[in-house]
Design brief:
2 helices
């Protein structure tokens, strides 16, 4: 059981039963980059 959990956590993106799952690290990176993009877009809109 422990081995299965480690193997599942090592994958970045998993597809099970038609649902998409992300690892914690992948989810954090995604939301970090999306936040940076939103901040840059907000600054750009403010200046234009």
């Amino acid at each position: 059981m422990n081995k299965q959990i480690k193997n599942a956590e090592s994958k970045k993106i998993m597809l099970e039963n038609g649902k998409l799952f992300f690892s914690k690290e992948t989810e954090r990176k995604f939301f970090f980059y999306m936040t940076i993009i939103m901040l840059v877009m907000g600054v750009f809109v403010k200046w234009v």
